[in-house]
C-alpha cells in the first residue's frame, strides 16, 4: 500500500471519527419522555469501556472501510479511541487538548478542546447530557426484550447528518448508527461493554513519540 493510499484511507477513517464526535455537539428539540429516558441512561454512565467494530458504507451500500478497536470514556471530557492495525490510529482527549495520532504516517495533530468538542465524542458518554432537548427530535423506535433504540433527527436544515440511532441492551450502549447528509452510513457495534469501570487517568494523556511530526490546529 502506497503512502498516498494509506493517507486516503486514514482520511476516511478520520471523517468517520469526526461524525462520531460531532453528533453530540448539537443541542436538541425532542419528545419529552424519550429525552428523559435517554438522558437517564447516559447520566448513569460516568465511565464506559468497550471494544468496537465499525463499518462505513457509501450511499449505494458499498463498503468504504471497516475496522475495530477500543473505546474508553470518562466524565468530564476524557476520551480514548484506538483503532487496531492495519489502519492504526489513536485519538485521546484529556479534556483540554485533543490528539489524533497516526503511527503509519508518523503524524500527530493537536488541537484545543473547545466547549462544543468537550460535549461530544461518544462524548455523550464523557460530556454533559442535560441539553438534549434543544436541537434534536428524539423518539424511541422500540422497547422490548431489554432493548431500547433511540432515533435522533436534527431539527436544523444545515446539519451535517440526517439521523443517529443509539441502541441500548439491558441499559448498556451496544450500537450507534449514523447517516450523514451525503447518505454515508457508519455502523458501530460495541462489544465487551463495561459501564463505570475504574480507568487509569494516565490513559487519557498523550506524548508524541520521538520523530513524529506534530501539527497544531
Would you give an account of this structure?
The protein has 217 residues and is mainly beta. It has helices at 3-22, 32-43; strands at 47-57, 63-74, 78-83, 89-94, 97-102, 107-112, 136-144, 147-154, 161-169, 172-180, 185-195, 213-216. The chain is 15% helix and 45% strand. The chain is globular and about 50 Å long. The protein has a 12-stranded mixed sheet.
CATH names the topology as outer membrane lipoprotein receptor (LolB), chain A
The helix fraction, in percent, is 10-25%
Radius of gyration: 17 Å
Secondary structural class: mainly beta
Mean pLDDT: 79
What's the total helix number? Answer: 2
Strand order of the largest sheet: 7-8-9-10-11-1-2-3-4-5-6-12
Q: Characterize the largest beta sheet: strand count, sense, and whether it forms a barrel.
A: 12 strands, mixed
What kind of oligomer do you see?
single chain
Q: Uncertain runs with pLDDT below 50, 5 residues or more?
A: 22-30, 115-123
Give the terminus-to-terminus CA distance.
28 Å
Secondary structure: number of strands: 12
Broad CATH class: Mainly Beta
Name the beta content range. 35-45%
Taken in chain order, the helices and strands follow as HHEEEEEEEEEEEE
Apparent shape: globular
Amino acid at each position: 500500500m502506497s503512502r498516498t493510499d494509506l493517507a486516503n484511507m486514514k482520511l476516511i477513517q478520520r471523517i468517520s471519527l469526526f461524525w462520531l464526535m460531532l453528533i453530540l455537539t448539537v443541542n436538541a428539540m425532542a419528545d419529552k419522555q424519550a429525552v428523559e429516558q435517554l438522558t437517564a441512561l447516559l447520566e448513569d454512565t460516568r465511565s464506559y469501556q468497550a471494544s468496537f467494530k465499525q463499518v462505513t458504507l457509501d450511499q449505494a451500500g458499498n463498503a468504504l472501510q471497516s475496522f475495530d478497536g477500543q473505546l474508553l470514556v470518562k466524565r468530564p471530557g476524557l476520551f480514548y479511541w484506538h483503532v487496531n492495525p492495519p489502519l492504526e490510529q489513536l485519538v485521546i482527549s484529556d479534556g483540554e487538548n485533543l490528539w489524533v495520532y497516526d503511527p503509519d504516517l508518523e503524524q500527530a495533530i493537536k488541537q484545543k478542546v473547545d466547549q462544543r468538542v468537550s460535549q461530544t465524542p461518544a462524548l455523550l458518554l464523557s460530556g454533559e447530557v442535560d441539553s438534549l432537548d434543544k436541537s434534536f427530535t428524539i423518539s424511541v423506535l422500540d422497547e422490548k426484550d431489554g432493548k431500547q433504540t433511540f432515533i435522533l433527527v436534527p431539527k436544523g436544515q444545515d446539519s451535517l447528518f440526517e439521523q443517529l440511532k443509539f441502541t441500548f441492551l439491558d441499559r448498556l450502549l451496544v450500537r450507534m448508527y449514523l447517516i450523514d447528509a451525503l447518505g454515508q452510513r457508519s455502523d458501530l457495534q460495541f462489544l465487551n461493554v463495561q459501564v463505570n469501570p475504574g480507568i487509569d487517568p494516565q490513559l487519557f494523556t498523550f506524548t508524541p513519540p520521538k520523530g513524529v511530526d506534530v501539527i497544531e490546529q
